[in-house]
């Protein structure tokens, strides 16, 4: 089921029934709306098989989550090994009383503090000055490291970074007349300071 897209609910139901027949287990619909369908195993306490499909703006039913194999059609759960938004929703429906602890158990062990400390368990030796380098092979000495070939574009170089995915950077405006934020001088309704008012005579 992971990685599949369906044009309609009927196609999804047909595939779910085939999966249940081939896997020799019985399924039941836990929730079904116009935009959501959740199917679980009948033996739910002992069987973690679960499918959660949502209707996306494009019209396809995707985002099928399998909590047993820790996978989702959006591929975030498979690649990053951290529950995506679809897996979080499925985990909340599967164990509503212990959602927080269950979500942590779905994360990869590589994100635990023990694995992070193991990465720095060995001694890291700093690189000595070049004057102390001895017995360097000739093929290494012959290598010349040059600057990277960077293509410079026209215009003023960009000083601000590109925002990451899901990050929203709000621009802060400041009025040149009153000095307050939230508007500019054209939409300013505050009176300017008397020292800023110039006489026209």
Plain-language structure description:
The longest helix has 15 residues, at 9-23. The protein has a domain at 9-112. Strands 1-2-3-4 form a four-stranded antiparallel sheet, covered by helices on one side. Helices cover 24% and strands 12% of the residues. The protein is an alpha+beta fold. It has helices spanning 9-23, 76-80, 85-94, 99-106, 113-118, 138-141; strands at residues 27-32, 36-41, 50-55, 61-62, 65-66, 71-72. The protein is extended, with a radius of gyration of 29 Å. It comes from Ficus carica. This is SWIM-type domain-containing protein. Residues 174-188 form the CCHC-type domain.
In helices, the fraction of residues equals 10-25%
Strand line-up across the major sheet:
1-2-3-4
Count of individual beta strands: 6
Q: Biggest sheet, open or closed, and with what strands and sense?
A: 4 strands, antiparallel
The 3D shape can be described as: extended
Mean pLDDT: 78
Order of helices and strands: HEEEEEEHHHHH
Which class of secondary structure composition applies to the elements? alpha+beta
**Quaternary structure of the protein:** single chain
GO molecular function: nucleic acid binding; zinc ion binding
Domain SWIM-type: 61-95
Keywords: Metal-binding, Zinc, Zinc-finger
Domain CCHC-type: 174-188
């Amino acid at each position: 089921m992971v990685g599949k897209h369906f044009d309609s609910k009927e196609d999804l139901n047909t595939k779910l029934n085939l999966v249940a027949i081939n896997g020799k287990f019985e399924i039941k619909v836990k929730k079904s709306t116009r935009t959501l369908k959740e199917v679980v195993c009948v033996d739910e306490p002992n069987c973690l098989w679960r499918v959660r499909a949502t209707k996306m703006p494009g019209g396809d039913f995707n985002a099928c989550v399998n909590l047993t194999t820790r996978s989702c059609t959006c591929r975030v759960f498979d690649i990053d090994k951290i529950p995506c938004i679809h897996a979080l929703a499925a985990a909340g429906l599967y164990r509503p009383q212990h959602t927080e602890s269950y979500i942590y158990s779905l994360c990869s062990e590589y994100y635990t503090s023990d694995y992070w400390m193991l990465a720095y368990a060995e001694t890291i030796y700093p690189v000595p000055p070049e004057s102390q380098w001895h017995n360097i092979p000739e093929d290494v000495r012959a290598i010349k490291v040059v600057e990277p070939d960077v293509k410079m574009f026209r215009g003023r170089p960009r000083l601000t970074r590109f925002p990451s995915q899901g990050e929203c950077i709000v621009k802060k405006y400041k009025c040149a007349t009153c000095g307050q934020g939230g508007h500019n001088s054209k939409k300013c309704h505050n009176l300017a300071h008397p020292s800023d008012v110039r006489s026209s005579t």
